[in-house]
Input
Amino acid sequence: MTQTTFTPRVFSGIKPSGGLTLGNYLGAIKRFVGMQGQMETIYCVVDMHAITVWQDPKELANMTREVAAGYLAAGLDPAQSILFNQSQVPAHAELAWIFNCVARVGWMNRMTQFKDKAGSNAEKVSLGLYAYPALMAADILLYHATHVPVGEDQKQHVELTRDIAAKFNHDFAADFFPLTTPVIEGPAMRIMNLRDGTKKMSKSGVSDMERINMTDDATTIAKKFKKAKTDPEPMPETIDGLATRPEARNLVEIYAALNDMTAEAVIAEYAGAGWGRFKPALADLAVEKLSPISLEMARLMDDPAEIDRILGQGAQKARGIAEPILRQTYDIVGLLRS
Ligand code: AMP
Ligand code: TRP
Output
């Protein structure tokens, strides 16, 4: 079946399951802001995804505000983009149920994020954690989004979203959902843990020294980069010299992404330099780029009512797009509306 042409529309989301990291900023938020103005953009704080693992109810609303503050402080403009939290648009959960009935158990069993998160504890994790990718497909397809900027770790989930859209369109003989394109490009698609270059930097890693938090102050940022694991070799002459040096490559990629340059250009500038020269330069650059954002986040967090107002207004706009698409979906499936 040839696909209808859908209006270009961006959707992406971040879970309020802990403080934002440099990985979230470079792999997601900075790129979300960059897509603003190029096409219609819809950005979400996915609180219903967060509760697939335990979240303290006393903290969750504040974490939701903090992620929203991170988006806004990094340059997201509520006049240009829709910004809201997922649970204020019930259509996400409603469409997710339909997708639970479209997706196959065999597909879900192949999801590497579920396998990583469940580990040897697969019998005890929530049913929601298993169904998580179907809710993510609903987030995206509820807006007929065509482009989804994400970090490398989410590629498989966006591919599953395409599979769900294709199976729905086929089963119901309806050319209704777009086949969404994951947008994974640039030097920062997978920012690694500062203590182990083979693991992703994440909100939930055990040691705080593994990650840069968006709220870290200048001294903490400098200390974390200084203590970041490296190797005894100086900076190579060419990018190929980083192939078997994951920690070194990670620091080069962070520098490149923060400074809007390629990793090749960073190597050209620092070829032969030791870590004693590169790490302080990286720390200075990180402080220069991140501290205006963390200051603005703190300022926004002083006025939670204003954040709530922005999210409420965004949710209203989001419902305006989502509800007609959900109603059409119900009609296609044959669910009676009277
Ligand atoms: P999460 O924090 O899991 O909700 O992720 C939100 C977004 O940030 C997703 O698009 C992720 O792919 C992206 N992201 C999270 N951690 C990293 C990382 N270490 N490197 C690059 N992107 C990341
Ligand atoms: N699963 C994504 C993550 O862990 C978050 C997310 C939920 C998302 N819904 C989405 C990302 C829709 C892009 C589009 O990071």
Observations:
- The radius of gyration is 21 Å.
- The pocket of adenosine monophosphate (ligand 1) is lined by residues 14-15, 23-24, 27-28, 150-151, 153-154, 188-191, 200-203 (CB under 6 Å).
